[in-house]
Every structure is written in C-alpha cells, then in structure tokens.
Amino acid sequence: MDFRQIQYFVALYEEKSITKAAKRLHVVQPAVSMQIRRIEEEYGTVLFERTPGGVLPNDRAAEIYPLCLEVLEGAAEIRRRLRSGPGKIAGGLSVGVPPSIARGILVDILADFQRKFPDVQLSVSEGYSVHLVEWLLNGNLDLAILGTSESDPRLHSDPILTEEMRVLVGPQSDIPGDEITGKNLIGVSLILPSSKNLIRILIEAEFRKAGLSIVPEMEIDSLSTVFALVRGSGRATLLPASSIRESDLRDGMRSLRLVEPSINRTLVATFPVLKPPSAAAKEFIKEFQLTPVTEGEL
Questions:
Q1: Which pairing describes strands 155-169 and 264-272: parallel, antiparallel, or unpaired?
Q2: Quick one: which of 140, 61, 50, 25 has its CA closest to 93?
Q3: What pLDDT sits at residue 242?
Q4: C-alpha distances in angstroms, 159 versus 22, 111, 150, 156, 294?
C-alpha cells in the first residue's frame, strides 16, 4: 500500500461512509472507491462490506488499521521535526475546548502559550464534548480538553485540572451570604444545561448521592444566554469556576459556594492512543496545569 492508499483506507475505516471519507479527504467519491478497490484487487482480499447502511470494515481491515495509523503518525512526526530546529518547539497544533473553558481561563492560557512558543501555529475550536470527541477521532484535532475521561479505547485521557462548581446569581437575587446548600438551591429558579450535557450529568449525579433531586426551571446550553438571563433576573445557575469572569462579578452577579453537596469537575487532556501528544501539545497541557482557578481569579 502506498501512502495515499493508507490515507484513504484510514479515512474510510473511521468514517464508514464513502461520502464522508471523500469529504474528509477533499476528493470526489469515485477516488476513494477506486483506491480501496485497487488495494483489495492487488492483495486478493476484501476489507469492507458494502451494506445499505454504509461501508463496514471487516476483521482483516481491523488488523491493519492500527498499523496504518502508525504510518500516518510517523509521517506527521517527520514533518514536525523537519519544521523545527534542535530543541525548538514549532509546527501546528489543533486544540478543542468546551464553551465553559473558551469563555473563561482560555484567554490567559492562549496569551501565555503564544508568548512562550511563537513558532507554534495554534488553532482552537470550541464545541461540546460529543463534537470534540468526533473531531479527535476524525483527525481534525490533536488534543481536546474535556470534562470527563472518554471510555472509547481509541482515546487516552490525563487529568490536568480540578475546579469547583459555583452557584452564580444575579443582582436581583435575595439569597443571603456567599454560600448555599443543595437543599436550599432546589427552591431557587434555576437554569441548567440540557440533560445530555456532561456538566448536567455531573450535577445530577452528585445531588443524587446527597439524596436530593434537582429540577431546573429552564434548560439552556448557550452560555451567553444563561449569563444574560441570570444577570437580568433573580434566577441562578451552576457553572464551573473557570467560566466565571471577574467582569461578571463587577456587573453585580455573585458567585456562591455550593455545599451539601460540594461538586468538583476534573478537566482531562484527551488525545488519540495511536497519536501521542507532540511537544507543542505537551506544553499546552502544562499551561492548563499551571493556571490557578480560585475565587480571586474567577
């Protein structure tokens, strides 16, 4: 198999659709079909089963898939090393982050990283975890910051940061003090992410452990909309500390500590098992680990 055939094979194996593989490779569909057919004819084997629901890789394809990934990663590593001099960190780095990170601590992290490594071409995409995982597996991202470890065996996750979940209330809120219990929070008009959101899943799990059931007044996944509603009403929301800016608190909103239960979220750096993080990716992860998320820096 030549290098192009390996690229086409991996794309089709992962996408399980000639249409999607062609789109990913930026080629026409017949080009994908032709390259796969040439591989099968040359080696007298069948790698994919053509079904009405898509193109499914068989056991023979599963055998060679990890070997093909190693070839692609080896080529990528060669390009990275050729672009950078001895000891120099350079090249491209594509990172995906969830909205809560993009709104909060990411700005400072990006500024520090670019100051230290000006030769790295950094690309940052924002998305929810399900999209970030998909982009990782499709090869569109080198690294993703997620709110939970993925069970997919093709991915590896390392914990990088633990942060507190905070209750954010608007200027019109009559909740006294700087702390609220889970039991008292239940009686507040609450905005939470939708039920499939990882933050919502974490919140509900911790409340169940405390023998409590939390039911929001509204379910909204747009952070900008949540902040606008909290700012203009007596409603409250539960958010990771990293998503709350100092400017939010200057606007009259308050960040309250949640107790009974207290909830912490662990962020993880996730990357493909067969594509370990580059030197640039490792340095980017270090920037997260060095970033404090405390009340004074919300």
A1: antiparallel
A2: 140
A3: 84
A4: 35, 22, 12, 10, 18
One fold for 3-82 and 88-161+266-297: no
Alpha carbons 214 and 239: distance in angstroms, whole number:
15
Residue 295 has a pLDDT of 45
Q: pTM for the whole thing?
A: 0.67
**Band of the pLDDT at 274, cuts 50, 70, 90?**
confident
> Does pLDDT of 119 surpass 90?
no
Task: Tell me the CATH number of domain 163-265, given options 3.40.190.290, 1.10.260.40, 3.40.50.620, 3.30.70.60.
Answer: 3.40.190.290
DSSP state string for 252-271:
T-EEEEEESS--EEEEEEEE
> Hey, is 156 helix, strand or coil?
strand
Domain layout of the chain by residue ranges: 3-82, 88-161+266-297, 163-265
- For domain 88-161+266-297, the CATH class is alpha beta
Encoding tokens for residue 255?
Answer: 């960040």
Options 1.10.1240.10, 1.10.10.10, 1.20.1310.10, 2.60.120.380; which CATH number does 3-82 get?
1.10.10.10
pLDDT score of 103: 82
Whether 82 has a pLDDT exceeding 90, the answer reads no
pLDDT band for position 273 (50/70/90)?
A: confident
291 phi, psi to nearest 5 deg:
-90, 115
Q: CB of 9 within 8 A of CB of 22?
A: no
Q: How far, in Å, CA of 173 to CA of 233, rounded?
A: 7
Q: What is the pLDDT of residues 137-186, one digit of tens each?
A: 888 899 999 987 777 888 999 999 888 999 999 998 989 999 999 999 99
